[in-house]
């Protein structure tokens, strides 16, 4: 069964920008769009006096808002199949569950700070860290013109071919649907002396040095995706520096930034990694965070 694209909305400007992005992507890929709102009745007195105190009225407002949000995209894309669901539950676990049934989950993001709306504080990290499917974060004010020809799908590649397979797959699929170029970025730094081993020294010697070794590793990681998507143009970008800084240095030419993530659980909650965290907070384009296989 083909999975739909799912967009989470909460009425904010950011979430509506995410919904518009999700609708355009669904049209490109020939997929259905599912629009969801995570909601749980809140009867306590802390709620503003102008907000309904009874569950039925709150639920009706949520349903009406969701219907209006869906109407905003069906009017732009008459042939798009759109369904809506009000999901009862806490935002983090509800959106993680919704992502499991989707090809990707699309949410709104403020950038330069915490993810807004239902993704305040640690909740955003919980969704990104817990989702088993790609999560795309879209800024308020994102426009279709940002997807114009000449703007690239930028993807970070690191480690072995298997380490970045999920992110590369997503980047190539997206570029193929848009007729865009993939810029594959591999950043490298000088390792400490104690990191060298006889085996690694032999590999470096065979490659002709550190930078040629990194270029060879990137080429090998890209090869199966070049073969699978022969019509997608690829730019191989190898640069010395931290991965986050190198990716952000080319973000201005990107219509989408794709990064992988390997979530870590700590005593204070989920961590999504410094590269994904930095790109999410500082890149102006939409960002897709793709879990490692």
Explain what the structure shows.
Belongs to the universal stress protein A family. InterPro entries: Rossmann-like_a/b/a_fold (IPR014729), Universal_stress_UspA (IPR006015), UspA (IPR006016). This is Universal stress protein. Pfam families: Usp. 39% of the residues lie in helices and 23% in strands. With 293 residues, the chain is α/β, with parallel strands linked by helices. It has two domains: 5-142, 3-Layer(aba) Sandwich (Rossmann fold); 147-291, 3-Layer(aba) Sandwich (Rossmann fold), CATH 3.40.50.12370. The strands form two sheets. Strands 3-2-1-4-5-12-9-6-7-8 form a ten-stranded mixed β-sheet, with helices on both faces. Helix 1 (13-29) packs across helix 2 and helix 3 packs parallel to helix 4 (122-130).
For the record, what CATH class of the largest domain applies? Alpha Beta
Order of helices and strands: EHEHEHEHEEHEHHEHEEEHE
- What is the percent of helical residues? 25-40%
- Count of helix runs: 9
Q: What percent of residues are in strands? A: 15-25%
Rg result: 21 Å
Query: Which CATH architecture of the largest domain?
Result: 3-Layer(aba) Sandwich
- Main sheet: which strands, in order across? 3-2-1-4-5-12-9-6-7-8
């Amino acid at each position: 069964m083909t999975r739909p694209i799912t967009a989470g909305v909460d009425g904010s400007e950011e979430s509506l920008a995410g919904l518009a992005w999700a609708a355009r992507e669904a049209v490109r890929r020939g997929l259905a769009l599912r629009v969801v709102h995570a909601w749980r009745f809140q009867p306590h007195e802390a709620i503003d006096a102008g907000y309904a105190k009874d569950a039925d009225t709150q639920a009706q407002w949520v349903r009406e808002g969701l219907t209006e949000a869906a109407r905003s995209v069906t009017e732009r894309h008459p042939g798009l199949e759109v369904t809506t669901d009000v999901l009862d539950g806490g935002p983090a676990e509800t959106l993680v569950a919704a992502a499991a049934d989707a090809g990707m989950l699309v949410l709104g993001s403020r950038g330069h700070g915490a993810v807004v709306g239902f993704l305040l504080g640690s909740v955003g990290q919980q969704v990104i860290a817990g989702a088993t499917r790609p999560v795309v974060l879209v800024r308020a004010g994102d426009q279709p013109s940002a997807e114009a020809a000449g703007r690239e799908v930028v993807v970070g590649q690191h480690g072995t071919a298997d380490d970045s397979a999920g992110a590369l797959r997503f980047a190539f699929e997206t570029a193929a649907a848009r007729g865009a170029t993939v810029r594959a970025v591999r950043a490298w730094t000088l390792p400490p002396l104690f990191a060298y081993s006889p085996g690694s020294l032999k590999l470096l010697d065979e490659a002709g040095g550190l930078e040629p070794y990194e270029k060879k590793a990137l080429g090998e990681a890209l090869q199966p995706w070049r073969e699978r998507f022969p019509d997608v143009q690829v730019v191989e970008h190898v640069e010395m520096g931290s991965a986050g800084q190198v990716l952000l240095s080319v973000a201005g030419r990107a219509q989408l930034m794709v990064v992988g993530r390997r979530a870590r659980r700590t005593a204070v909650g989920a961590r999504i990694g410094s590269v994904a965290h930095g790109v999410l907070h500082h890149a102006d384009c939409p960002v897709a965070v793709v879990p490692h296989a």
